[in-house]
Amino acid sequence: MARTDRAERTIAAPREDVYRALVERDALEAWLPPEGMSGRIERWDPRPGGGFRMVLTYLDPAGSPGKSSDATDVVDVELADLVPPERVVQRAVFEAEDPAFAGVMTMTWQLAAADAVTGTRAGTGTTVTVTAADVPPGIHQDVHEEGIASSLANLAAYVEQRAG
């Protein structure tokens, strides 16, 4: 049965700044890998229908076997829909021999204005809601939601540092 995972975070930065971090190569490499991983983009085509290929490497592969190799998760991402500054929809396919990781997972990054963000001027906050639909069964829900939350924390730190 198809599963949907979600996470949300309010970021103290305008939607335009958050959106830009979702569609720029250097930004994605900096914030998208969750805690315990690094990332490198091998292919980049930032337009609807284009996408990117990212190699995520575990900093300590001993406790976290990768999907693509002992130390890596490789994912091909199609940019299915780009609606500045409101939404980015990605279709992600993991490179893995294990059929438990097969299939297309759709990640929707929805950006909404958040006027009441502590420590910011009115109208400069953004609530980011991430919805991952059709999550492959090999990806454990608690680990996946923790990873999304970690990426959102990285996104917040990345964007807020540049906005501040």
From TrEMBL:
Stored InterPro entries: ASHA1/2-like_C, START-like_dom_sf
A Pfam family matched in the record: AHSA1
Organism: Yinghuangia soli
Span of domain Activator of Hsp90 ATPase homologue 1/2-like C-terminal: 12-160
High-level lineage: Bacteria, Bacillati, Actinomycetota, Actinomycetes, Kitasatosporales
Protein name listed in UniProt: SRPBCC domain-containing protein
Family per record: Belongs to the AHA1 family.
